[in-house]
Design brief:
The chain is mainly α. Helix content is about 55%, strand content about 10%. The protein has helices at about 5-10, 15-55, and strands at about 60-65, 70. The mean pLDDT is about 85.
Length: about 80
């Protein structure tokens, strides 16, 4: 009468690897969803930004993140 549910469940734990896989599936799914919703779009945005900066030439008209319109007078390579 005084047996805990944990002892009752531990007696039939023959399929340990199947239970481990079932426990890992939600974590893998959550990681995959987070990657597609957070990391992948950020990488795509960084790639587009890098491409725009690499294609800057003297005389190009630009708009800064603060909304200031300007003209490129000199382009220097970061080195």
């Amino acid at each position: 009468m005084f047996i805990t549910p944990a002892y009752a469940q531990a007696a039939g734990a023959a399929g340990g690897s199947a239970a481990l896989i079932q426990n890992l599936i939600p974590f893998v799914l959550i990681f995959g969803i987070m990657w597609f919703l957070l990391i992948r779009p950020q990488q795509k945005k960084m790639k587009e930004h890098r491409s725009m900066v690499d294609n800057l030439r003297r005389g190009d008209q630009i708009v800064t993140a603060g909304g200031i319109i300007g003209k490129v007078s000199k382009v220097k390579e970061d080195g």
